Amino acid sequence: MSLQDAGHRSFVARERWLLAAVLLLAAAVRVWGLGTLAFEQDELYTLRDAADFGASAGDGPGILGRPLYYLLQHALLLVLPAEPWLLRAPAALFGLLGVAATWWAGRRLIGPVGGLAAAALVAISPWHIYHSQFARYWTLLYLLAVLLYAALPPALDGSSRWARVVAVTVGLLAALTHPTFLFALVGVAIATTIVTAEGHVRAPVPRAGHLVHVWAPMLAPLALWYGLVRLLDGGRALRNPGAFGGEWSSRLVPAIIQWAGPVVVVAALVGVVVLWRRAGTRRLAATCAGGLASVLLLLLLAGTRTAVFADYGTAALPLLFLAAGAAVQRAHEGLGGRFAAGFVAILLAGVLPQTVSHLADGTRFDFRPAHAAIREVGAAPVVAWPVIVHRYYAPDLSVIESDGDPAKLDQVLAESGGFWAISAIRRRGLVPGGPRAQRWIDEHCRRRGHWEAARLDYRRYAVALDWCGPTDPRPSRAPSAQDRDP
């Protein structure tokens, strides 16, 4: 299925140095801020659920629905302290391995130029960098997914027994890392059934060899696991509590496109087209298109029953980068190395503003300056969201979790006589609560602080501190000389 030919020899001679540069860059941007970025709520859920195997998780997904990473994190917590950089170290390591695996898979499936281009795109992808600095299972899922996509063609063709073992093993592990892997697997399975290795389109009837050697060994244990989850908790470990429905799901596709990078999405579409035009790469084109399409479709359907997020498209992300790499590979073959280099430069330049923006604030809210400001002025109740983050960083403050409901805010104000409001603000407004919570704050509160890093993309992660009450709180200490006006 490779597009490589003799004309690539000069590139291959320099490939190891280019790959080393890509991996060094990938490591640098993933280590940046690894120990200093503020924890997000999901990272603290990882710490909580991995420590006690999810006994305190309550409703919603827990270790039953994502067992592999939690078991790994639990083992690490037995011997290592829960420092931020140590808690995030597995995600960073899996992230770097994912960059290398993307190069390896791309080289095998599309050629050396395309493989290196795909790896470079992953290296500076803000989505993948964010996951590599996030104490969660996403980079492990990405790594396992890309290994499956590389092992699947020889496994289905029967040319390698080892490839069948790898495909079945990593498929099982990926599904046990996060069940949304199956959303991508559905499209990949259909695509590889319809399109043969020779590029012929056939009736969608699975071959007996595929069923016996690949799909049955992979899916039978997963069916038993699903039955166990249903038996133990009625399937709650596979659902998210919270908002869902049409309005929620309507944001999903734009969020995935923005998160992956519009230029990368366009390049991937071009890559699917050029792969389809050759019989030898037609199955890969169908695999990329099928996996991406099934993830979007099944996530939209799942959004009618449970909350879904852009992160749930992670299993299809390698297909996006491989398809974009295929477009670069074909440009190199047809138009020469300089044109391909220019193509890559355009792609990287299109992604770079998001990457720089991520490095500026970690693509997350940092509430620690607001906590420090409250301690300087005076103790009072604090209304904020999410409570798990505020209680972790400010256990000395009395924190009340708020969903932005004005009636509840009225009640807290009446009972307390005044409180601090710490607000998380995204591009579309306050999280949670939106415009209704903002109107209440505008009417009842006075701004006391605002923290926001400059970004070059559409995203926004601002933190605001307001005092809500008839009188200002009294300082907790006497003003110092630095506090007084000159």
Strand elements, count: 6
Number of helices: 20
Percent range for helical residues? 55-70%
Q: Report how far apart the termini are.
A: 74 Å
- Biggest sheet statistics: 6 strands, mixed
Average residue-wise pLDDT: 89
Structural class: alpha/beta
Unreliable residue stretches: 1-7, 476-486
H-E string: HHHHHHHHHHHHHHHHHEHEHEEHEE
Radius of gyration: 25 Å
Shape: globular
Tell me the β content. 5-15%
Report what the structure shows.
By secondary structure, this protein is α/β, with parallel strands linked by helices. Helices cover 62% and strands 6% of the residues. It has helices at residues 9-31, 41-52, 67-77, 84-109, 112-123, 126-132, 138-157, 161-177, 181-194, 208-233, 246-250, 252-260, 262-276, 282-302, 317-335, 337-361, 368-377, 387-393, 406-416, 434-444, and strands spanning 382-384, 399-401, 419-426, 429-431, 445-451, 462-468. It is globular. The termini are far apart. Mean pLDDT is 89; it is low at 1-7 and 476-486.
Concise account of the structure shown:
The chain contains 20 helices and six strands.
Draw up the topology in text.
Blueprint: H1 9-31, H2 41-52, H3 67-77, H4 84-109, H5 112-123, H6 126-132, H7 138-157, H8 161-177, H9 181-194, H10 208-233, H11 246-250, H12 252-260, H13 262-276, H14 282-302, H15 317-335, H16 337-361, H17 368-377, E1 382-384, H18 387-393, E2 399-401, H19 406-416, E3 419-426, E4 429-431, H20 434-444, E5 445-451, E6 462-468
Parallel strand pairs: 1-2, 1-3
Antiparallel strand pairs: 3-4, 3-6, 5-6
Helix pairs in contact: 1-4, 1-5, 2-3, 4-5, 4-6, 4-7, 5-15, 7-8, 8-10, 9-14, 13-14, 13-15, 13-16, 14-15, 15-16
